[in-house]
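Q: Fold this one first, please.
A: Sequence and structure below.
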Amino acid sequence: MRVPYLSLLAILGLYIFVTAPSLPGIETRVAAHASNAANTAIAAAVAPHAKNPPLPDPVLTPGAAIDVAVSTLCEPGYARMQQHTSRALKLAIYAAYQIAPDSGRYEIDHLIPLALGGADIASNLWPQRYGDGSAAEKDKLEKFLHREVCAGKIPLRVAQAEIAKDWRSTYRKYFGE
């Protein structure tokens, strides 16, 4: 079976990302998820996956979080300081989902958002489609859950689990149809 050239480049980029020394402040829990990400990307390169996924493929994107105190993630600017997604990693995600990175119809999104302690690694990233309203809905849900977690109304682990399992049903739970 032939593996597309872009997939091989994506796997190489992901391998470099996973084996590179850890950035200061990244928890060991992330490293465990990152090592699984390389295997996930290799499997994805040889297995067909649906294009235009309404939800991320749970094999490719199960979600990953770091251990962070609620008080820390509720500090203004926390999520912005955590975003370090490289172009190589984004290309690896597009390749795993068999989506052209230059289509202009997708963005690489964190399944568990950084504002809820989501990790900036492959197992927490997926291509989310623009234009069908889902990106705006997920953004609205992320902001809502962040506010609720910071207000002490929803436990952080509950918010992470709900959005990782099925963010669309979580959206309906809080906002209706």
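Q: Good. Now the second chain.
A: Here it is, same layout.
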Amino acid sequence: MRLRLPPSVRFGAGSISQITDSLRECDVRRALVVTDHGVLAAGVVDRLGLDAEVFVAHQPTPDQITACASALADVDGVVAVGGGSVIDVAKAAVALHAMDVPLPDIYGLDKVHGPALPLIVVPTTPGSGGEVSSHAVVTDGSKRHAVSGACVVPRAVVIDPELAVTLPDDATVACALDALMHGAEAYLARAATPFSDAMALPGVRRIAAALPVMGREELALGCLQANLAMAQANAGLVHALGYPLTSRYGIVHGIANVLVAPAVLRASRHVQERRDAELAECLGAEQFADGLTALLDRLDVPRNLHIDDPDGLAQEALHYGPVRANWRFPATATDIATIYRAACR
């Protein structure tokens, strides 16, 4: 079992005040802060109290990542402050700076090798998973590519639940449901380990309990646990079917996943009944799909999915080979199209 973990994680209300300690631990004296317009306007970057240059990111596109990498010439570290897109830009830029090759040359698993600039991550959402994982996601048109390697794991993470207080409830729900599925898929994954199992179940349980009441600290802790599980075991078939819904229809990633998840879980439960039942228990149900559906109803998440080309979407889902291969049910294109149709009922 190989673990890839951030060496330092600071957690708790007010922990943003310890950012200088994280910089000191990572031996960073001159940093580039990577953030987005919303976080900047909310004054979160000002709260860091750093005298640093700021790069404002939008989405993890090749142009944004290349521009961010170019801004790293005169710094000795990076501080990413924001949600998943900001973290992906910062991580991919650090990887590109380390490798000094065209960005497409490092698409794929474990193609990035150190040394790389130290990265400190301050999530402003309940957590995309990027704060603890060894990969970043690059969005190139309708395609998503992974950039990964051990040196892409952040050196330090500061998780302050207070930073998410001003996040709109719908955005909080989408981010937390994404993390819930990270924990669930990690628990059902072929690559599951005793460590990922130990993080996955309590993470799913905490998120499910905290979401309806917006318990920010418990939500942040549950997301951290679920994302640590995913960082070790990876995601699965739910993500493979969720990605095309985002690229084709613009459905927010976390919501896209849970729209297809019940159908995926029901189609594949026969190969993982015991683990499905253990996840279901975290949601007070006998089957995880039923528990998840009840949670979505309780959160008023619309489940009226309409798609016009399930066979085309199935072909797109086939492109996400590593997460499909990580599922115990080897779904074919026909299986996937059938699952998409079931998700629309």
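Q: Anything worth noting on the second one?
A: The chain has a mean pLDDT of 95.
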